[in-house]
Every structure is written in structure tokens, then in C-alpha cells.
């Protein structure tokens, strides 16, 4: 039987149990009966605010029996459900939980939440895709692909294609071993047939025609895989092996699948777009700098001299950026003394009383904004009481906590398990009835004496 509880909060912010109820099921009419009986127990006074889970039956019952009460969903249940649905996001993005809880706790209107949510999700998506793409680009430059058959054409593909595209090419090359090249009576036409054509399904196509434009070396197959995806099909590769083709023709190499896909510079359209676009957007500035840096890296990796030029300029640029950031940062000084009353103000811009600054005291002085804050006015943050049962553990310093943590990780000394520890006195065991050290009360012979 489902069991429900009516729980409130006292003036001490402690949980108070008002009532409990057993229900035969979780239907709307049972919840309506429970709310009606609860109001009767409370002397006919309905609750002003009620928090429940997201069950539709409870919501309908609240609207029917407590029409004047403010009904809200319990945040704990909402976040629990969100964690169940977004578990993969929580696990893969360590900062998502903090960002999401900040949205839930600090956004006051629906529009604020929607705008913040769109910004967080878009930023996470961009960062995730850029990190994956950068990792693939790094592996593309470092990984050496291994060929399967050792054909010159296969070695050429391993040099020009990225690892994932080469794997697709290799699958088609492996499938090409299942096709035989047959003679054709048509000019500039080849025919390939599957070696197990008789045992394949009746609806399966086993014979393909490939036409060749000898002037440019372009092969057109009936399957249309090259036109559709940009990777040569197994039928054309079977002809390449048969004809002894050593390199993939340039007309069949799609640049977007090659390792040099990012070798091109900015287009004129992008430069014009940059001039007409508001560059206050952080994501736009990020993308602009990202592609500019990629182009510099591609140009600088050609030879050692180009690398040295790029490295020196990177160092100079980093130094200038650090100086710029320091100039934007508030500089503060700590010292003794006092300042004139008309020059002293708090960080919020409110002027302090004269008797507060007339005395010589330690002060924090912001030289850029001419702001002085007495150190004595800075108070420690208030200790907030945590929800739930208070802990009976005392607060330990960081040094003591580290010492206990190290001791917990070590294997226990067999001597320390003995009574009294390593250096302590070994305590003797004795019978609590006859005080004999040779046995305990369980084995005491006096227990059985008449």
C-alpha cells in the first residue's frame, strides 16, 4: 500500500511531520480523499503552499481540494529526474552540474532561464565538438596508418586520407576481392561480377558496369557510391587492382576527406562578414581566433625557420596579452595610515564615517579607483547551518586530515591489532566471575557448580 506523509517546516527551519496516510492506490480520487481528511485534521485550515512530486494525479487532486493553495513541484524530485535523463551529460561534463544548478537557483523568470539554458547548452556543444575535432586533428598528424594488402594504391590512400576515411576506403578495398573483372564488348566500359553470384539472394545485384573517361581518368560505377559519399566503391577498386593503378586519380580525391582539408586560408566572404558583424560576441571572437591560429600552425610546420618565426611571435603575443590583462585587473595595496574623508569610500561607493577612518589602521587601497577599505570592516562569512542531522565529527585542520588520510591508506601493522597497540601495555583477559586469567566467563567451571 502506498504511504504518504504531510511534512512541514517549523520556525526553527526543522522538519515537522503533520500526518501520514495509507492509500490503496495512487489514483486521483484517493489523493482527493487524503487532502480532504488532512484539512479536517488541521481544523479546517488548508495549507497556503504545498510541494509535491510531478505526479499528474496529485496535481489534479490539489486543484480540486486545495484551489487557493500555491502548488509547486519539489525541486529535489525535479533535479532527481533531470539527473536520470541527463546522466550522460553529468558524467561527461564535470562543470555541467554546477552550471545547471546555478540556472535553477538564480534564474527568476522563464525568459531568464531559457536564455541562460540556451547559452549553456550552445557553449557546451561548441566546446565538446571543438575538443573532439582538435583531438582528431592531433591524431591525424601523429598517427601512422598501417596498410592491409600493401598495394601502392592503398599506401597512397593512407597518406592522403584521414584515419577514419582511410578505414572506409580499406573496407571497400577488402570487398573488392570478392569481384572478378569480366571482358566487355562496349568501349571504355568494364564489368565486374561477384564471385559467389549463384549463392547470393535473387534480389541482390551481382554484376556492375563501370564506364571510364580515359582523358581525365574518371570512373563512373552504377552503384554511385563515389558520387554520393566521395569514396571509391569496391567495384572501381577491383578494376584498379586489375589494371595495376598505383595512385588514386586526382578527380576521385575529395579534399574534405584528406589530411590537407584545412590548408586553405580565409575566404573573401568570411573577411567581408567579419567587417560587417558585431564582434562583441565571445563565441564569434573564439571562432575567428581559432581558425586564424589553425592557419598559422599549418604555415609554421613546414620547416624549422617558419616554426621559429611563429614561436617567437606567439611568445610576444602571449606577453602582450598578459600585460593587457594585468592592466584591466584591479590593483590593490595593503598598508597602514588614513586618508582624507572625501577620498575614502567602500567598494560599493558608499562613503565611510569620519570616526571610522580617523584612526590609524590596516587598510586595503585600490590605487586605480581610489577606494580604501579598512581591514577591520571585513567580517568572516556567516556559518550556515546545513540541512539534516548535525555531524558529531569535530573540525580538523588540513594537516591533521592529510595525516589521517595517509594512515588510512597504509596496511595495518599486525602488532597494532593487539590490545594496547604497538607501544602500549598488553591487557590480560580474565574471567569476570572467578577472576582467573586462564579462561573467560563462557568457559568458567563455577557456572556449573551447584
From TrEMBL:
Query: GO cellular component annotations, sorted alphabetically?
Result: nucleus
Ranges for the SWIM-type domain? 208-244
Instruction: Report which superkingdom the organism of origin falls in.
Output: Eukaryota
Cited InterPro entries: FHY3/FAR1 (IPR031052), MULE_transposase_dom (IPR018289), Znf_SWIM (IPR007527)
The region annotated as signal peptide is: none
Keyword annotations from UniProtKB, A to Z = Metal-binding, Nucleus, Zinc, Zinc-finger
User: Is the keyword Transmembrane helix assigned to this protein?
Assistant: no
Protein's cellular compartments? Nucleus
- Annotated region Disordered: the residues are 402-422
The principal location of this protein is nucleus
One GO BP annotation is:
regulation of DNA-templated transcription
**Pfam families in alphabetical order:** MULE, SWIM
Question: Which terms in the Gene Ontology molecular function aspect does this entry carry?
Answer: zinc ion binding
Relate the protein's function as given in its record.
Putative transcription activator involved in regulating light control of development.
What family is reported? Belongs to the FHY3/FAR1 family.
The identity of this protein, by name, is Protein FAR1-RELATED SEQUENCE
Organism, scientific name? Triticum turgidum subsp. durum (Durum wheat)
